[in-house]
Design brief:
Structural class: mainly alpha
Shape: elongated
Helix content: 55-70%
Strand content: under 5%
Number of helices: 3
Number of strands: 0
Distance between the termini: 57 Å
Radius of gyration: 29 Å
Order of helices and strands: HHH
């Protein structure tokens, strides 16, 4: 197993542990809604501390049910993950393309693949050939 495969396996195990451990250990069993989210917890804490508190504004859209709210949140997360995956894939593809181009030319892979040095590049038409 390669080093990258081991790292990926460990990361997947860590993510699975983060998802399963709270359920196995019974965290939140003493609550009516054990995993309700930060917004609900904040609202509860504010009403306990200041019962007369009135919000400054209301949401632009209030979903008709919790399931729709969860679906919209999942959609938002999926779009964000897609944008990040596209960006990282694009970066990796560009880097691999530069490495392939450098390998074809035989030059260094530091992004200067098109540059050549030495007398073979001096054909008289380049500015470097006109220097004294």
């Amino acid at each position: 197993m390669s080093r990258n495969a081991r790292i990926n396996t460990l990361l997947l195990l860590a993510v699975a542990a983060l998802a399963v451990l709270p359920l196995v250990l019974g965290l939140g069993d003493h609550k009516e809604q054990p995993f309700s989210g930060a917004d609900g917890e904040a609202e509860t804490a504010i009403t306990e501390l200041e019962p007369d508190y009135e919000p400054w504004f209301s949401p632009l859209y209030e979903p008709p049910s919790g399931e729709i709210e969860s679906a919209l949140f999942a959609l938002q997360a999926a779009i964000g993950a897609g944008v990040l995956a596209y960006y990282f894939g694009l970066r990796r593809g560009r880097r691999q393309g530069e490495e392939r181009a450098a390998a074809r030319v035989g030059g260094p892979s530091d992004g200067s693949a098109g540059e050549t040095t030495g007398a073979a590049a001096d054909d008289g038409d380049t500015p470097a050939a006109k220097l004294p």
